[in-house]
Specification:
With 323 residues, the chain is of the alpha/beta class. The chain folds into 2 domains: 2-119 and 292-322, Medium-chain alcohol dehydrogenases, catalytic domain (Quinone Oxidoreductase, Chain A, domain 1); 122-264, Alpha-Beta Complex (Quinone Oxidoreductase, Chain A, domain 1). The protein has 11 helices and 15 strands. It has helices at 41-49, 113-116, 122-133, 150-161, 177-181, 194-201, 217-224, 248-251, 263-269, 271-286, 303-311, and strands spanning 2-6, 15-19, 29-38, 63-71, 83-87, 96-100, 104-106, 141-144, 166-171, 187-190, 207-212, 226-234, 257-260, 294-299, 318-322. The strands form 3 sheets. Strands 3, 4, 5, 6, 7, 14 and 15 form a 7-stranded mixed beta sheet that branches. Strands 10-9-8-11-12-13 form a 6-stranded parallel beta sheet, with helices on both faces. A two-stranded antiparallel sheet has the order 1-2. Helix 3 crosses helix 4 (150-161). The protein starts with a strand and ends with a strand. The protein binds NADP nicotinamide-adenine-dinucleotide phosphate. NADP nicotinamide-adenine-dinucleotide phosphate (NAP) binds next to helix 1, helix 3, helix 4 and helix 11.
């Protein structure tokens, strides 16, 4: 079976196609005949910086949809041929993927395999950020960075469904604003001036909830526009900045909460909790309340082109590899 791997860290060109023996599922695992694999920003960070890469060579890919080929001897929840979608710690850029049964899900009713491939990573992430970490309440105002990306596209819609009174998105280029405005956002600001804009539209109060995946200076500027008793959630470092630090003086006077989240961490430590989150998040899609459009699709062998597109910072919505 064919798979995309990298043997050294570097640019998209380090990704290359190899032929590997067909894998068999171990205990607690299933093998999946992959239809589609989702592209995540974390795949790009893995390839470029070694993010969550234990050893080389490494096969990226955190999510796939497809049909179950075989199940490990103790796996009773799935049968061969069943349509599934799965979150995994790597290895999704393959014709056959090995996935933990604990983070594999039947494809929700009414969804096809292409749509199912968009679900496992960004939906539970956005749901957890808003509900479990930031504890969204009716009437809260919400600010989301990278609003037109995968997480951003669903976070805007979930915030609105969850009762936010205003949802503000931030994008790096105005070309992305129309996509964000169709994804639950009331207003979209440019990254260079979002803080001034937030202060203007909130009368200087700031927002109740801010979702921040870029880090560095962007984290600091977001902290400055989080309202009294507000909740800022850091969930990425797409700007490759040094880790942020805060001091008591940043949070005492205004009663701010600063927190973080890692879906990969949750999947490894508490897959049952991830299943609960995924159940709630997938339901929003099945019921038509949330959409995540696939905006580009590449052949497995063209994964490098997909990474180049992500790095061009021009993408919106979700990118997929097809088998
Ligand atoms: N903590 C978690 O569990 C978790 C789970 C999933 C994703 N994430 C994080 O959430 C963020 C978005 O992930 P995603 O999968 O939704 O990604 P995506 O669809 O590929 O979107 C990435 C977005 O990041 C922004 N960006 C910021 N700096 C960038 C850079 N240097 N190069 C390219 N794009 C850059 C871009 O928006 P603008 O150009 O408009 O800023 C782009 O829309 C990433 O930081 C990712 O690591 C975290």
């Amino acid at each position: 079976m064919r798979a995309m791997i990298f043997e050294e860290l570097g640019g998209p060109e380090v990704l290359h196609l190899v032929d590997l023996p067909e894998p068999a599922p171990g205990p607690g695992e299933v093998t999946i005949d992959v239809a589609y694999a989702g592209i995540n920003f974390a795949d790009v960070l893995a390839r470029a910086e070694g993010y969550r890469v234990d050893a080389l060579p490494f096969r990226p890919g955190l999510e796939v949809s497809g049909r179950v080929l075989a199940v490990g001897e103790d796996v009773t929840a799935f049968v061969p041929g069943q349509e599934v979608t799965s979150f995994m710690p790597g290895g999704g850029y393959s014709e056959i993927a090995v996935a933990p049964a604990a983070t594999t899900f039947p494809v929700p009713k009414g969804l096809d395999l292409r749509t199912a491939a968009t679900l496992p990573s960004v939906l539970p992430t956005a749901y957890a950020l808003l509900h479990d970490i930031a504890r969204l309440r009716e009437g809260d105002t919400v600010l989301v960075h990278s609003a037109a990306g995968g997480v951003g596209t669903v976070a805007g819609q979930l915030a609105r469904l969850g009762g936010a009174s205003a949802v503000y998105g931030v994008v790096s280029s105005l070309d992305k604003a129309p996509h964000a405005l169709k994804s639950g956002y009331d207003q979209v600001f440019l990254a260079e001036s979002f803080d001034t804009e937030v202060q203007a539209v909130t009368g200087g109060r700031g927002v109740d909830i801010a979702l921040e995946p870029i880090g560095g200076d962007n984290f600091r500027r977001t902290l400055a526009v989080t309202a009294r008793f507000g909740r800022l959630v850091s969930f990425g470092n797409s700007g490759s900045a040094a880790p942020w630090q805060i001091s008591p003086a940043d949070v005492y006077p205004t009663g701010l909460s600063v927190s973080g989240f890692s879906l990969m961490g949750l999947a490894a430590a508490d897959p049952r909790r991830l299943r609960q989150l995924a159940g709630a998040a997938f339901q929003a899609v099945s019921e038509g309340g949330v959409e995540l459009p696939v905006t580009a699709e590449f052949a497995l062998a063209d994964a490098a082109a997909a990474h180049r597109l992500v790095e061009s910072r021009t993408t919106t919505g979700k990118l997929l590899l097809r088998r």
